[in-house]
Design brief:
The complex is a heterotrimer of chains A (about 325), B (about 300) and C (about 600).
Chain A (H helix, E strand, L loop, with lengths): L1 H29 L2 H6 L5 H8 L6 H6 L4 H11 L6 H13 L13 H36 L4 H15 L2 H15 L12 H35 L2 H8 L4 H9 L5 H24 L5 H10 L3 H29 L1 H5 L1
Helix pairs in contact in A: 1-15, 3-5, 7-8, 7-10, 7-13, 7-15, 8-10, 9-10, 9-13, 10-13, 11-12, 13-14, 13-15, 14-15
Chain B lengths: L9 H7 L6 H4 L2 H20 L35 H37 L1 H15 L3 H10 L5 H28 L2 H8 L4 H37 L11 H8 L2 H6 L2 H28 L7
Helix pairs in contact in B: 3-4, 3-12, 4-5, 4-7, 4-9, 4-10, 4-12, 5-7, 6-7, 7-9, 8-9, 9-10, 9-12, 10-12
Chain C lengths: L3 E14 L2 E14 L3 E5 L6 H8 L8 E8 L2 E2 L5 H5 L6 E4 L3 H4 L6 H13 L3 H14 L5 H4 L9 H13 L5 E5 L7 H18 L2 E6 L2 H7 L2 E6 L2 E7 L10 H9 L29 E10 L6 E11 L4 E5 L6 H8 L7 E6 L2 E2 L5 H7 L3 E4 L13 H12 L7 H11 L15 H13 L5 E5 L7 H17 L3 E6 L2 H7 L2 E6 L2 E7 H6 L4 H9 L15 H4 L17 E6 L2 E5 L2 H4 L3
Parallel strand pairs in C: 3-8, 3-9, 6-7, 7-8, 13-18, 13-19, 16-17, 17-18
Antiparallel strand pairs in C: 1-2, 1-4, 4-5, 9-10, 11-12, 11-14, 14-15, 19-20, 20-22, 21-22
The chains are: A mainly alpha (about 325), B mainly alpha (about 300), C alpha/beta (about 600).
């Protein structure tokens, strides 16, 4: 087991390196890092020529002050852009390990501070969504497997199928319109006054996020339970005269949870993506809205910092899901 | 469960099976054809949009602004008086277009990588799997955001982005399916009678791997269409005047419109919902239908 | 007639399906007296399991059960809810076929044992635990206090089946139904479990139903035997009269299909090599394997499946390789065709060293050495037609000489596949027909050697007899040399000229079939033979200690091999060699 964990930790570190590299690389290769850093300036190509001594810097001569080229030059030096990408990556990596995620161009605030302020709201939304999803999916999944083929099972299957086909933003828009705007049963936007108001105002968005995931969980659990119910040990338990309830919960449920647990990790990724969108629809000032704004404003350090934090969190969650999975199955645990 | 061999050996199977619903598996069914018809109808409408007798989707004040769904225009107008029905049909062009191109890229690239990893194993597998694993470490939408954030967002770049986020999960599935079949005895049997690797891949593995991949293409196209919508909500869908379902839904979901004029958002939502559901349903049916039974006794 | 424990009268079980009603059990009537053992025998799908599941109320709710089932005077089918709650698992209990799957993999053995006692008898946790330990002791399971904290996967198959039996007996049932309780187990373990069941039945004065496909298993221990076919009862007879000549024709045909271990083939063995010091007879043998080693895994998981095995196969003979699961018999045979490639050692075919060939050169040799798989269904690509499957070899190697479509036709007819069915996919054939397709596919290539890896173990006994007969016929018709791998000694006796007995990756005894079966020398061979059901023990005697204690040890009474000693094969007859460490004590000829 210790050896297994050690191997997983090494794997975790490798993946985290890959994740940071992909994120850093995407923003550096797909766009010009200079644009990302100094904002959209018309004269970057022009200044390259100036630097190469091909022409005079006319901007400086016209303004007789700090020309764009000067700013660009400073930026290049400041951000070490004259150095090779790999070297820059490691410098940046060193910084983020020490907690320095850079400074926002827009607000001049440290990115880590922005994330610390926004992330808890998003986390709260996601945790609520997962709780709702599991609380709905497990009982419904167990019951529909128990009643497989009957009316109630068919009805839940149709409902699940419908929920899987409706995009979460569409559900969000419909729910917002009906529950918050037309009927005003629940708030349409985030209320940061107290813990109570926070939870209250997150009920709608969390439910929207939860329903799609709950449908996935329910279908998966039902299928796995039906497979487990064909197992000999279930027949054995029935032959021992155990009650249906005892068999469903004590015998069949645990061996049927394995795929659900794996998907729990994966669905967290969908949840993160979903909350990027849902935060916008329900005006929640979380990390999702922050990223969207930052992208629009080309606030490169905020985008990079947030993406790295989110992706790392996702990797770490899956790491723990993996360990939990292993722990849950005695066959894997002992080998 | 048993269907093909009407023999008494089916009895023990039946006795062990809680739900005896064998016929539904052998036919694609009425629902499947309805789903396919809907997909066909939307695709044709999208392709022929410029020649259809509908209003110009970008023409402002085509009717009175915020005309209701029962007004002069077939499905009303939006805040600028643009025809909602025409915009929905034109939106299908981009939504279905990026969805189809995206999943095509994902299946071709991801599928080949996955099959290669699953068949050759060893170093090939390790490299491909690590790359896929690294890509999968990003939530799909975050990865899409990373790619599109610094690019100009044309039809092609959005389609490409949707394709890239599909590569890793598709390659994982293709790899798992390939391994599942590569370990099977009939592959060993082919080797015993002297088949070469190329023949084994083409004759023994591909038919078994491609059919589940085909079903996946339909399911994946639905996911791609939804992903375009999500990108639109992040302001990262196709730029400019181009219309997509996602962008139309975003337009209609501004608080004031949504409250008083909800059909502007609801019409494209409904179109997207029906299309995604049809794709999911058709994909599911094909998967079940082509799932050959391998135990006859 | 004595005092009936279970009476079944005119029992029908029907399953309504979309294709009409399947009649699984058609009006069966029988009586089981207290303390008696009834064997129910029939091939798969004959309704034997369905019938007993009806007694146990384990059928799906769609099943229609009519007739009457009376347990000790109580009507089972109309039993009220309160009585029913503490009936199954208390008065009547059941043991299932596969011990690997009958236990919940994620629950501790103790918890699984205790739950029935606590539910039905309201025992406290401590009392239930004490009883669980007592039960495991009764099942002759060593260290019961430690076992109850273990999970099922930590136990061997035989141990698990003991736990399952303990679970069934937890509440002292008056009737135990055992559904093929030993089919998934090795022959020596099978014997131990059957003996245990028999002993328990007598000690506890309990009635028992033993469901089995194997007439010989039933004939050893039951008082009466009920023979079923297609849901109908063929006959019910006292076991003592099972082998009389006036039995029902179906019983006779089952008996006929049973391979008979006592029956010598009467063939003279291929002339033994003059040099009695080596069990390798001929340098020019068709196949000659020397010091073959096959290892799997690496470092800490390294496992040596085949350990320095040498043997040879002369042209035209059939070598049977026997042993229990995991002994390396399949790996040995398959590594001849380099699937898997041996770790070390030499494999020569017609003098050509196969281990040194590159993949392309090996591919050229492959048509000569064909393999028949254990599970024919998984050996056939489910998406291709019978014709495509059988003709594939010709497609690969090209149509030339005799390799034409007419040869494919001829072969399909020869193996008994109707040429009209050539467009069908594998799942449209039965298991036996699939095996015929596999054989035809191999023979299309005109091979010299056929390696048969348990070709009949997935098939019913009557189908097995047909396939064996077919192989025998084809062997003569096409002048084949065969390697026949099987765990079933009776089958091997009927088909092999020579036999090689393997145990933990090594050869323990090899030689002429009659000589091995009539004068087994190695204690393991004796033990294997004595465990075969349906016959009086051949005098092998019981091994000392529990079966688990045997694992991997070579300490055998006669050979006196120490744990570190490497036994060698020493001659005991003209063509009979046995593994032994202390050669000086054993050479008597």
């Amino acid at each position: 087991m210790a050896r297994f964990i050690a191997r997983r930790v090494v794997q975790l570190i490798l993946v985290l390196l890959a994740v940071t590299f992909v994120a850093f690389g995407a923003l550096n290769f797909l766009g010009d890092p200079l644009v990302n850093i100094v904002g959209p300036l018309a004269a970057i190509d022009y200044c390259d020529e100036v630097e190469a001594g091909l022409r005079e810097d006319s901007y400086t001569s016209i303004n007789n002050s700090r020309g764009d080229c000067e700013i660009i030059g400073e930026a290049k030096a400041d951000f070490g852009l004259d150095k090779p990408v790999v070297q820059r990556y490691f410098t940046w990596l060193g910084n983020i390990i020490t907690g320095d995620l850079g400074t926002s161009f827009q607000t001049q605030l440290p990115v880590s501070e922005i994330i610390a302020q926004k992330l808890p709201k998003s986390l709260m939304l996601m945790v609520m969504a997962q709780i709702i999803a599991l609380a709905v999916a497990i009982p419904v999944g167990v019951y529909s497997a128990y009643r497989a083929g009957r009316g109630i099972d068919r009805a839940t299957s149709v409902a699940s199928f419908g929920l899987l086909s409706i995009p979460n933003f569409a559900l969000g828009v419909i729910v917002l319109q009906f529950f918050a705007l037309r009927n005003q049963w629940l708030p349409a936007s985030f209320d940061d006054t107290s813990v109570g108001t926070r939870i209250h105002s997150l009920i709608l968005p969390a439910t929207v996020l939860a329903l799609g995931i709950a449908a996935t969980y329910q279908r998966l659990l039902r299928t796995d339970l039906l497979t487990t119910l064909q197992e000999d040990f279930v027949h054995m338990a029935r032959a021992k005269g155990m009650t249906d309830r005892h068999i469903m919960i004590r015998h069949a449920l645990r061996p049927s949870l394995f795929s659900l647990i794996t998907v729990f990790g994966v669905s967290t990724g969908g949840l993160i993506g979903g909350s990027l969108v849902i935060e916008g629809i329900f005006s929640i000032p979380g990390i999702g809205s922050e990223i969207v704004t930052a992208v629009i404003r080309d606030d490169f350090p905020v985008v990079l910092g947030s993406v790295v934090v989110i992706a790392s969190g996702f990797v770490v969650i899956n790491f723990f899901v993996d360990l939990f999975y292993t722990w849950l199955d005695p066959r894997v645990r002992s080998s | 469960m048993n269907t093909a061999v009407p023999s008494t050996t089916a009895i023990d199977d039946i006795a062990n099976d809680e739900t005896v619903n064998d016929v539904s598996k052998r036919r694609l069914g009425f629902g499947f054809w309805i789903a396919i018809s809907w997909i066909g109808l939307v695709s044709v409408a999208a392709l022929l949009a410029p020649w259809l007798p509908i209003s110009d989707p970008n023409e402002i004040a085509n009717g009175a602004p915020r005309d209701g769904i029962l007004g002069d225009n077939l499905m009303g107008t939006d805040a600028l008086g643009r025809d909602v029905f025409a915009r929905t049909i034109w939106g299908a062009r981009i939504s279905l277009g990026v969805g189809f191109l995206g999943i095509l890229l994902g299946v071709v690239v991801g599928g080949s990588l996955g099959i290669a990893a699953g068949y050759f194993k060893g170093l090939t597998d390790q490299v491909i799997s690590f790359l896929a694993f690294s890509l999968l470490s990003f939530p799909a939408l975050v990865l899409a955001l990373l790619i599109t954030a610094s690019l100009s967002r044309s039809f092609l770049t959005v389609a490409m982005t949707l394709g890239i986020i599909g590569i890793a999960p598709i390659s994982r599935l293709a790899r798992a399916t390939t391994i599942q079949f590569a370990d099977r005895e009939f592959v060993q049997a082919a080797r015993v009678i002297g088949a070469k690797s190329r023949r084994i891949i083409i004759k023994e593995l591909l038919p078994n791997v491609l059919i589940p991949m085909g079903a996946l293409t339909l399911l994946g196209m639905g996911i791609s269409i939804v992903a375009e919508g999500s990108l639109a909500f992040l302001g990262l869908s196709v730029e400019g005047e181009a219309i997509s379902w996602g962008k139309s839904i975003v337009d209609g979901s501004q608080t004031r419109d949504l409250n008083q004029n909800s059909h502007v958002a609801f019409v494209p939502i409904f179109a997207m919902f029906l299309t995604v559901m049809a794709l999911n349903f058709a994909g599911d049916r094909i998967r079940e239908y082509t799932d050959v039974r391998e135990t006859a006794f | 007639m004595g005092d009936p424990q279970l009476t079944v009268e005119d029992l029908y079980v029907r399953f309504p399906t979309s294709r009409g009603t399947v009649e699984a059990v058609n009006g069966i009537t029988f009586n089981l007296d207290k303390g008696q053992m009834l064997g129910i025998v029939g091939e798969s799908g004959c309704g034997k399991t369905v019938m007993m599941k009806a007694v146990m109320d384990l059928l799906p709710s769609t099943a229609e059960v009519t007739g009457s089932i009376t347990f000790d005077g109580e009507d089972v089918l109309s039993m009220d809810k309160a009585r029913r709650k503490h009936f199954y698992g208390v008065d009547i209990a059941m043991v299932f076929q596969n011990p690997m799957t009958s236990l919940n993999p994620v629950k501790r053995i103790g918890d699984q044992l205790m739950e029935g006692m606590r539910f039905h008898r309201g025992l406290s946790k401590a009392a239930a635990r004490a009883r669980a330990i007592e039960l495991l002791e009764q099942m002759q399971i060593p260290k019961p206090r430690e076992r109850i904290r273990q999970y099922p996967h930590e136990l061997s198959g035989g141990m698990r089946q003991r736990v399952v039996i303990a679970m069934a007996l937890a509440n002292d049932p008056r009737l135990l139904i055992a559904d093929e309780p030993t089919t998934a187990l090795d022959v020596t373990v099978q014997r131990e479990i059957l003996e245990l069941l028999d002993e328990l039945r007598r000690d506890l004065d309990m009635a028992m139903v033993l469901i089995t496909h194997d007439l010989s298993v039933a004939s050893d221990r039951t008082d009466n035997v009920l023979v079923m076919r297609n849901g109908d009862m063929m006959e019910m007879v006292p076991t003592a009269r099972l082998f009389d000549d006036d039995r029902h024709p179906y019983t006779l045909s089952l008996r006929k299909a049973m391979p008979d271990i006592t029956q010598s083939r009467g063939t003279t063995p291929v002339e033994a090599a003059p040099d009695a010091n080596s069990h390798l007879r001929d340098e020019e043998a068709l196949i000659r394997v020397e010091d073959l080693v096959v290892e799997f895994g690496k470092r800490e998981t390294l496992f040596r499946a085949v350990d320095r095995v040498s043997f040879d196969v002369l042209e035209g003979e059939t070598l049977g390789i026997v042993g229990e699961s995991g002994c390396g018999k399949s790996t040995t045979a398959k590594s001849i065709i380099q699937l898997p490639e041996p770790t070390s050692g030499s494999v020569r075919y017609r003098g050509q060293e196969l281990t040194e060939l590159n993949p392309e050169a090996m591919r050229e040799v492959r048509p000569n050495l064909q393999l028949i798989f254990q599970d024919p269904v998984s050996a056939l690509n489910p998406r291709r037609s019978a014709w495509d499957l059988v003709s594939e070899g010709v497609e690969i190697w090209g149509r030339h000489g005799a390799w034409t479509d007419s040869r494919i036709h001829e072969l399909m007819t020869a193996v008994g596949i109707d040429p009209d069915h050539m467009d069908r996919k594998p799942h449209q054939f039965s298991g036996g027909q699939c095996q015929r397709l596999v054989i035809a596919r191999a023979l299309v290539l005109d091979p010299q050697v056929l390696i048969c890896d348990e070709p009949t173990s997935a098939l019913d006994v009557s189908v097995q007899a047909q396939i064996l007969e077919l192989l025998e016929d084809l062997k003569h018709q096409y002048q084949l040399t065969m390697l026949f791998i099987s765990h079933d000694l009776a089958v091997v006796r009927n088909i092999a000229d020579r036999v090689m007995v393997m145990y933990f990756g090594r050869v323990v005894e090899i030689g002429d079939t009659d000589s091995i079966f009539e004068n087994p020398e190695h204690p393991y061979t004796k033990r294997l033979l004595s465990a075969v059901p349906g016959q009086e023990a051949l005098g092998g005697g019981k091994f000392l200690g529990s079966p688990d204690a045997m694992l991997g040890e070579w300490r055998t009474p006669e050979c006196r091999c120490g744990p570190g000693d490497m036994p060698v094969l020493v001659p005991r007859g003209p063509d009979h060699h046995v593994a032994c460490c202390h050669v000086e004590n054993i050479i008597r000829i």
